[in-house]
């Protein structure tokens, strides 16, 4: 029973080992197999875990996508974890860390969003700087590049609380230029930086099924690996800072374009007398089947759009992806057309609804001109 408890509460047991002396040699032998002691600061050498539960499994694909011989070698996880930004994504991610027994300190511009997490045991600090100063690794999940820069590099930004041995993991979706700017400020303080935007929306965040697209300091990737495993199902290390941001923008560009095309199909089927609900079923059983269509389709048919990924964020990501394509002169005509559709949807007050509400932009009839 004791071993099972350790397997499922890694962060919690690690904290106990820090704060209590264990006198029984047999107990020490047992714990050393699963819960090596954690220092009060991060070390620069990588970490390794022997996963005993899917929650902490190492993603072979994530490592092998870069180096076939890469292995996790470290024996510790960060003792104190900070989390900045508690929106649709950040709140469930931080909650999963707390439920896993991690020592979490939170901050959000709107303090009341911190209250549910505080009630679960999180600590609270009044600025990103204070969070970073009090934690070993700090995660940031912000809505856009401007917010990400302000929280990291502003007057009371996290960079001011950074010092050698600490780490900053930015899981916001931003462009490469923004990510490199934040990285510069963090590294100037002597700390480590990792960009780790996620693929997934509200439900995967709640279920700990996100996909992390990371780049930056490999040491921090390995140190924070067990924490990423709590919040996600897989992680990829993609090399230099900027590559993670680029991968996320490409993924969301594809997703936004797919949703726009799916919306056209639903409306066309209805216009020609078919049942769009049946179309959803047909698509789900064919070669173009995608979880997104099966999950979003039924509510779209009913013109209901419960927000899992706000439309304004999808449009922002399309805009950033088009900017990325421009830097390498890559034509992206389909994504460009989809972006215009999302802009129309935003102009009709659909910004805060789910991105599947883009279908409403196709229902809008053009007003006749004054000459007609």
TrEMBL record:
PROSITE patterns found in the cross-reference section: 3_HYDROXYISOBUT_DH
Record keyword NAD present: yes
Keyword flag Chloroplast: no
Domain (3-hydroxyisobutyrate dehydrogenase-like NAD-binding): residue spans on this chain: 242-361
Coiled-coil region(s): none
This protein's UniProt keywords: NAD, NADP, Oxidoreductase, Stress response
GO cellular component, as recorded: chloroplast
Database matches in SUPFAM superfamilies: 6-phosphogluconate dehydrogenase C-terminal domain-like, NAD(P)-binding Rossmann-fold domains
Gene3D superfamilies cross-referenced by the UniProt entry: N-(1-d-carboxylethyl)-l-norvaline Dehydrogenase, domain 2, NAD(P)-binding Rossmann-like Domain
GO MF annotations in UniProt: glyoxylate reductase (NADPH) activity; NAD binding; NADP binding
6-phosphogluconate dehydrogenase NADP-binding domain: residues covered: 80-238
General function of this protein: Catalyzes the NADPH-dependent reduction of glyoxylate to glycolate as well as succinic semialdehyde (SSA) to gamma-hydroxybutyrate in vitro. May function in redox homeostasis and play a role in oxidative stress tolerance by detoxifying glyoxylate and SSA generated in glycolate metabolism and GABA metabolism, respectively.
Family: Belongs to the HIBADH-related family. NP60 subfamily.
PANTHER family: CYTOKINE-LIKE NUCLEAR FACTOR N-PAC, OXIDOREDUCTASE GLYR1-RELATED
Protein name from the UniProt record: Uncharacterized protein
């Amino acid at each position: 029973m004791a071993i099972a408890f350790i397997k499922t509460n890694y962060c919690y047991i690690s904290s106990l080992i820090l704060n209590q002396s264990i006198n029984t040699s047999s107990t020490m032998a047992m714990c050393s197999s699963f819960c090596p002691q954690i220092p009060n600061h991060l070390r620069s050498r990588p970490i390794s875990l022997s996963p005993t539960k899917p929650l902490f499994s190492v993603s072979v694909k994530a490592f092998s996508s870069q180096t076939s011989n890469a292995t996790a070698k470290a024996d510790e996880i960060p003792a104190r974890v900070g989390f900045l930004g508690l929106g649709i994504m950040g709140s469930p991610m931080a909650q999963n860390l707390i439920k896993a027994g991690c020592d979490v300190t939170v901050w959000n511009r709107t303090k009341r969003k911190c209250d549910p997490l505080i009630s679960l045991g999180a600590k609270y600090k009044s600025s990103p700087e204070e969070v970073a100063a009090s934690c070993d690794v700090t995660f940031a999940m912000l809505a856009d590049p401007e917010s990400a820069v302000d929280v990291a590099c502003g007057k009371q930004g996290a960079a001011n609380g950074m010092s050698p041995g600490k780490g900053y993991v930015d899981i916001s979706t931003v462009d490469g230029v923004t990510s490199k700017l934040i990285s510069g400020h963090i590294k100037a303080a002597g700390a480590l930086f990792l960009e780790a935007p996620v693929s997934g929306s509200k439900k995967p965040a709640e279920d700990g099924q996100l996909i992390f697209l990371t780049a930056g300091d490999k040491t921090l990737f390995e140190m924070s690996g067990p924490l990423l495993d709590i919040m996600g199902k897989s992680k990829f290390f993609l090399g230099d800072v900027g590559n993670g941001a680029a991968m996320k923008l490409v993924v969301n560009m594809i997703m936004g374009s797919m949703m726009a095309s799916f919306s056209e199909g639903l409306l066309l089927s209805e216009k020609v007398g078919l049942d769009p609900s049946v179309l959803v079923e047909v698509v789900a059983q064919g070669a173009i089947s995608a979880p997104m269509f099966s999950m979003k389709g039924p509510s779209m048919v009913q013109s209901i759009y419960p927000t899992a990924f706000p439309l304004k964020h999808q449009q922002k990501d399309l805009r950033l992806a088009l900017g990325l394509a421009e830097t390498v002169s890559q034509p992206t005509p389909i994504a460009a057309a989809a972006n215009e559709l999302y802009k129309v949807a935003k102009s009709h007050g659909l910004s805060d609804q789910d991105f599947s509400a883009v279908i409403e932009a196709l229902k809008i009839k053009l007003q006749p001109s004054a000459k007609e």
